[in-house]
Description:
10 helices, 9-stranded mixed beta sheet, 15 strands, 2 domains, alpha/beta, Rossmann fold, 6-stranded parallel beta sheet, Dihydrodipicolinate Reductase, domain 2, 342 residues
Amino acid sequence: MKVFMIGAGDIARHHGRAVVRxxxxxxxxxxxxxxxxxxxRSEFGCLSCTYEEIEDYVVQADYVVISTPPTKRLDYVxxxxxxxxxxxxxxxxxxxxxxxxxxxxxxxxxxxKIMVGFAHYYRPAYRKMLELVKTGMFGEPVDIAFSRLSxxxxxxxxxxxxxxxxxxxxxxxxxxxxxxxxxxxxTAMAGGFDTIACNYTGTIASVPKFDNHTSITIRLRNGAIGxxxxxxxxxxxxxxxxxxxxxxxxxxxxxxxxxxxKLTWKTEDMPYAETLTFNDSxxxxxxxxxxxxxxxxxxxxxxxxxFETPLADGISALxxxxxxxxxxxxxxxxxxxxxxxx
Length: 342
């Protein structure tokens, strides 16, 4: 497939490598940074374009990848959807509900096809966890416990210029930018939420909009409870995703924020726990993780099926994230607002 890239940062290079690995071609790239464009052109042998030339490349593409900061996206989305070209959009889809609903309006107007890049949803270890949960062998959910702690963006206030995430003009913080992954992983296993209570904080005084620690408690619509503990400023990397049900439990663990190396489960009728091991590392194999998402994207395009992580999932994740931020700022448990059918 022929793919045009809007955004040429580090994650965009992984997108390009996934396209090539799948037998496709990066036909062009746009970015506001000439340095990023130079790196991208050198690796992929593609042309770069000016802002005014973006649509000339869009119409030649089978799909477009948008991996710009979420605050700088609306015009690019319209340039893609108005030509009825499919879009792979990095999460979060936006930083405000106003922008998210503008994207939805564009998708409705042009019957746009958008997959949101919740890449961790497509990883083999999580897919196996979801598959086992969906069999019903663990019963109804009682407690969903997610923990991921690791050095990350702005760790010990270093390398602040290395990412838009710590740019004072672009930052949206961990609760919006990164916890969006957790919303998707949890809702796929256990459904949506009624209430959210959150406390978040940032440790970088120069970037007050950048929260890099968040602690969230949720109540799911089916009565189950859940927790998310996340930090980009922890010296000891570790993670755990757990589903505790009425008939058993399953844990996905690893040493790193997104390391999926061990899947362990036990039900009430099993004498011992069973374990599968995976070499499923985001820290060491980011390209593989992005590859799985593009593989699923292209498969859905070829077969004419629905995306498993559509725009609606991206908007729902933003609703949950903004509710969490509201909870922290008001120091109250908040009911998740109803934005109707998204």
